[in-house]
Amino acid sequence: MPDLSRTVQRAALLNALRTFPVPTISVDDYALLCGISRPTAYANVREGRVAVWRDGRKVQVVTAPLLEALGYPLTPPGPLADGQAGDSSIVGAYASALGSSTDDVLALAAH
User: Fold this and answer.
1) 110 φ, ψ to 5°?
2) Distance between CA 34 and CA 12 in Å, rounded?
3) pTM score > 0.70 for this model?
4) Which of 59, 65, 57, 62 lies closest to 97, judged by CA?
5) 58 — phi, psi (to 5°)?
6) Domain of life, per the record (predicted)?
7) What pLDDT, in 10s, does the model give residues 56-68?
8) How far from 68 is each of 3, 5, 53, 56, CA to CA, in Å?
């Protein structure tokens, strides 16, 4: 039987990311979200299997392409999906938080 506490943690993290999108998450959160071990998560980072943002020694996983790869759209349900703001505003928010262009974010999402 799967560890229920990890399942609950994974669901809570996914809900938080879809409700309050952030540009990056820790490698530990990436491991939790994907249901993989911490060493496997770091191996994926080393081998370039996941889009990352590096700041010196700090490594963060970029959430936009990760959520897309897991089958979750960048546009969360609710007011944003109802036309009050579009995908471009969400991509723009990721771009400004990362200090890059929207083209760079879209390229990462396609990765």
Assistant:
1) -80, -15
2) 13
3) no
4) 62
5) -75, 130
6) Bacteria
7) 999 999 998 998 8
8) 25, 25, 17, 26
